[in-house]
């Protein structure tokens, strides 16, 4: 017989009770390097354009635009720096949880029974810092995929093996 009883919300587990593991601190360096590269490249491109341009109006505009880019780049780096402490994850018996963000905090919990396949990715900088990304693809079209960036390689490999075992046991 079908039942749909109401649940007392006071008996539900609290998110604060979940022991979240912080992402490796070296991932912050990768974020800052990536952001810095983009903004330094843009400022450098404008510097070159000012150097080759003979139009004084463009030169003044590009100079002010460079100042804006420097300020915006510093603000973006500050936001990533402040939000870095919120990059955490937890592995439980039935699911994984990942949280990130500063201005907008996002918490993703992915049940193991929705996992379709796994992938470990390593960018050039991630390899240099000994880090990797564990990408978990989920069933459905809701965009429930999960990517935990900034994991030490050995931890990503152990989690990969653990999750692969769970997926294989399902079959």
CATH architecture of the largest domain: Roll
Estimated helix fraction = 40-55%
State the domain count.
2
Largest sheet report: 4 strands, antiparallel
Radius of gyration: 22 Å
Distance between the termini: 29 Å
Give the uncertain stretches in residue-range form.
none
SSE string: EHHEEEEHEEH
Structural class: alpha+beta
- How confident overall, as mean pLDDT? 90
CATH-defined topology of the largest domain? PH-domain like
Tell me, briefly, the overall form.
elongated
Given this structure, which CATH class of the largest domain is correct?
Answer: Mainly Beta
Biggest sheet, spatial arrangement of strands: 1-2-3-4
Strand content: 15-25%
Write the layout of secondary structure elements.
Blueprint: E1 21-22, H1 26-52, H2 56-83, E2 88-91, E3 95-100, E4 106-111, E5 115-121, H3 124-129, E6 131-138, E7 146-152, H4 153-170
Antiparallel strand pairs: 1-2, 2-3, 3-4, 5-6, 6-7
Characterization of this structure:
- The protein starts with 20 loop residues before the first strand and ends with a helix.
- A hairpin with a 7-residue loop joins strand 6 (131-138) and strand 7 (146-152).
- Helix 1 packs antiparallel against helix 2 (56-83).
- The chain folds into two domains: 26-83; 86-170, Roll (PH-domain like), CATH 2.30.29.
- The chain has 171 residues and is of the alpha+beta class.
- A four-stranded antiparallel β-sheet has the order 1-2-3-4, with no helix packed on it.
- 46% of the residues lie in helices and 23% in strands.
- It has four helices and seven strands.
- The longest helix is centred in the middle third of the chain and has 28 residues, at 56-83.
- It has helices at 26-52, 56-83, 124-129, 153-170, and strands at residues 21-22, 88-91, 95-100, 106-111, 115-121, 131-138, 146-152.
């Amino acid at each position: 017989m079908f039942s749909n009883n109401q649940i007392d919300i006071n008996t539900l587990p609290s998110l604060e009770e979940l022991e979240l593991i912080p992402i490796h601190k070296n991932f912050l360096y990768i974020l800052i390097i990536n952001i810095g590269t983009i903004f330094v490249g843009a400022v450098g491109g404008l510097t070159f354009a000012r150097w080759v341009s003979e139009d004084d109006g463009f030169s003044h505009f590009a100079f002010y635009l460079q100042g804006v880019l420097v300020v915006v780049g510093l603000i973006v780096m500050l936001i990533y720096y402040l939000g870095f402490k919120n990059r955490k994850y937890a592995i439980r018996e039935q699911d994984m949880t990942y949280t990130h963000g500063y201005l907008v905090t996002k918490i993703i919990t992915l049940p193991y029974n929705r996992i379709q396949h796994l992938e470990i990715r390593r960018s050039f900088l991630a390899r240099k810092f000994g880090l990797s990304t564990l990408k978990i693809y989920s069933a459905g079209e809701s965009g429930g995929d999960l990517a935990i960036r900034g994991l030490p390689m050995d931890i990503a490999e152990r989690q990969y093996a653990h999750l692969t075992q769970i997926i294989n046991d399902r079959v």
